[in-house]
Amino acid sequence: MRRIFIAAIMMPAALTLAAAALADAAEDVAEADRLSDKGRFEQAIELYSRAIDSGELSGYDLAAAYYSRGLSQGRLRNNEAATSDYHAALDADPTLVSGWSSLCYQRSRNEAQLAEALLACDKALELDPGHGPSYGIRAEIQGMRGNIAEAEKDYAEAIRLAPDNWALYFNRGVLYHRENRREEAERDFSEAYGRAPGWARQHPTAVKMFREYGFAK
Known about the structure:
3 domains; disordered N terminus; Serine Threonine Protein Phosphatase 5, Tetratricopeptide repeat; 13 helices; mainly alpha
């Protein structure tokens, strides 16, 4: 139950190439971004790879291509490949906030790597203290480690930065549910239900929680 929605709400969209990239590689990345948006991740990965292997990209542009390929790998649950791509993105541009945040998320999928995940989130927030996704991911990790007060603090900041993000309320509601704080859980599930798109309300995990708290039949 703990990891269902984090990817859908925390992973930023593919980064846009700067104009300095040469035409062929830039066109490949642009087309790969379109394919990724349509859920055609394997085809997107092929084009990202061609752009990366072309040798035409450097700096931010190369980091963006690796990062975006990592997103597609992650959505195919190719977790090791995604992690490798995020590391490559950060090698190309160590200031890439979304790269650190995504590495945090990817590391958090393995409970043995939670300490490393936290370090990556901390780095993202050091670079950009207003990066809401990193607060949300870090809150999830803190909850997994039993650091409830720290998780609540991070959820509060994430929600302050993104008050219409339904899944932040849902994930915090799950935290409160696990802690048997039902009134607080009910409040957050109410906020989540009111903001959730139709597909999210039908997800098995969401349905279970929403039904238990009386928000769905």
